[in-house]
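Field log, afternoon session.

UNIT: design team B
ACTIVITY: writing a sequence onto a fixed backbone
BACKBONE:
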């Protein structure tokens, strides 16, 4: 029998608990050499879900890795697995020579001295003596950008799983903690983590169950009967050092607003640059920007000619050339006042959120700021996307969005996952942020009436396009 020294603060009961489980999982490792059971479909679906949640080429740590099959399926840039069963670790090392496996107890990870992009605890927390202590151990191995992903069985399946085990169809187990989703969230918070997303997964761990596991499990009441609970969390935020800011402005037929933009955009962080992307205007917008750049030599600024068409194309061009650590979008029509930008800055730098989304639908609007049908459409899309993304999104089309450039670069690198048919750029950023498990925070602003020019949005044409995007996003985010 493999032996691990179980250090204090375990009492005698805790040490006995751990040693019994080490013996148990050593025996399971030997049993699996000749026995497979019916868990193969469950583990295949589990791997699919983790591949969705974890970006390619990530540095991944799995605590309680068993024989390493889940970790190997993720093809990480660096993969490290930890397990207290020496028998499991021996098999993991033999099967997956490109990964590193460490024989250690999850309650004492002092042998690890590196940080990871993602830390996985798959079907582990229900088997732990002290869940909070394990979570506190992994805090040291995390950076502000690390994501913790935990999955564990629902107690509703206790009888079914017990029956399967008694028939030798599933892996035998010892008595369990049977945490709820609320329990897991509370323990994460106590250990210094902030839960971002909670989902229920896998309705039927059987062959030919794709429809149930991809579609039905997303709908009430079926989701209440799911086998596995998932919780994704991040370390509680620490205020960042004051970064540099780039305010990116797509300007098409906005000549009359340029002077106000220079006068009203506040200085933020270590410095604030204004990046204009002029989009084939019919008025003298380009010339107006040139004049104001010359008139404000103390304001760092950049003027680009848009290479393509559409707001998304303009914003991407501006983001690519921006030099700031933080990227802000400000609409040139000034319906969102530039004076509100420091609120977005503070929400991001304080760590309150990692993607700050402006919301126009909280405070009353000025009379002509948004027409009734546009307001109703925004309400519909906010409900649809809150459900799709698993995070509350009250206003999907407010132009003002703020994020770190390093996160935008990851979104851009993985843009092919969603495709490239968003003319606005809002959904490209929201989808990408959700896919990266960034903490999305809505920030209410007072939406003002346009004082110059007219909107470039076609209500019906673009409304139909947005409906198509909802359907597409459902396939790529929700029904995976």
């Amino acid at each position: 029998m493999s032996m691990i020294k179980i250090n204090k603060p375990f009492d005698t009961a805790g040490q006995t608990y751990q040693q019994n489980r080490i013996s148990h999982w050593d025996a399971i490792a030997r049993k699996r050499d000749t026995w497979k059971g019916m868990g193969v479909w469950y583990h295949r679906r589990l791997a699919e879900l983790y591949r969705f949640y974890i970006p390619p080429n990530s540095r991944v740590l799995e605590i309680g890795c068993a024989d390493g099959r889940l970790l190997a399926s993720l093809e990480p840039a660096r993969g490290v697995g930890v397990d207290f069963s020496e028998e499991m670790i021996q098999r993991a090392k033999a099967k997956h020579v490109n990964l590193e496996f460490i024989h250690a107890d999850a309650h004492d990870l002092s042998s690890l001295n590196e940080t990871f992009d993602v830390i996985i605890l798959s079907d582990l927390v229900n088997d732990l003596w002290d869940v909070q202590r394990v979570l506190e151990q992994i805090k040291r191995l995390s950076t502000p950008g690390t994501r913790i992903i935990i999955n564990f069985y629902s107690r509703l399946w206790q009888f079914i799983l017990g029956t399967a085990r008694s028939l030798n169809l599933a892996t035998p187990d010892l008595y369990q903690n049977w945490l709820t989703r609320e329990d897991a969230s509370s323990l994460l918070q106590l250990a210094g983590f902030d839960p971002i997303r909670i989902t229920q997964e896998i309705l039927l761990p059987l062959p030919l169950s794709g429809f149930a596991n991809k579609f039905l499990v997303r709908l009430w009441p079926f989701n209440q009967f799911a086998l596995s609970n998932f919780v994704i969390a991040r370390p509680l935020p620490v205020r960042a050092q004051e970064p540099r800011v780039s305010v990116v402005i797509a300007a098409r037929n906005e000549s009359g607003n340029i002077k106000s933009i220079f006068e009203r955009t506040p200085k933020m962080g270590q410095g604030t640059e204004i990046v204009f992307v002029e989009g084939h205007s019919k008025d003298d917008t380009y010339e107006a920007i040139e004049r104001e750049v010359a008139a404000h030599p103390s304001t760092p600024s950049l003027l680009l000619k848009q290479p393509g068409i559409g707001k998304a194309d303009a914003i991407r061009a501006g983001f690519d050339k921006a030099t700031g650590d933080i990227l802000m979008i400000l609409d040139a029509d000034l319906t969102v006042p530039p004076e509100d930008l420091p609120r977005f800055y503070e929400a991001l730098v304080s760590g309150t959120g990692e993607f700050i989304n402006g919301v126009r639908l909280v405070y009353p609007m000025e009379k002509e700021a948004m027409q009734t049908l546009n307001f109703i459409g925004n309400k519909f899309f906010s409900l649809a996307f809150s459900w799709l993304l698993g995070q509350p999104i009250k206003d999907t089309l407010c132009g003002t969005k703020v994020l770190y450039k390093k996160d935008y670069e990851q979104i851009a690198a993985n843009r092919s996952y969603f495709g490239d048919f968003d003319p606005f750029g809002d959904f490209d950023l929201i989808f990408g942020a959700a896919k990266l498990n960034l903490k999305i925070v809505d920030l209410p602003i007072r939406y003002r009436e346009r004082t110059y020019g007219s909107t470039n949005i076609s209500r019906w044409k673009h409304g139909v396009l947005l409906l198509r995007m909802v359907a597409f996003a459902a396939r790529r985010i929700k029904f995976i």
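LOG NOTE: Residues 12-235 form a domain with the Rossmann fold fold (CATH 3.40.50.150).
NEXT ACTIVITY: expression trials, pending approval
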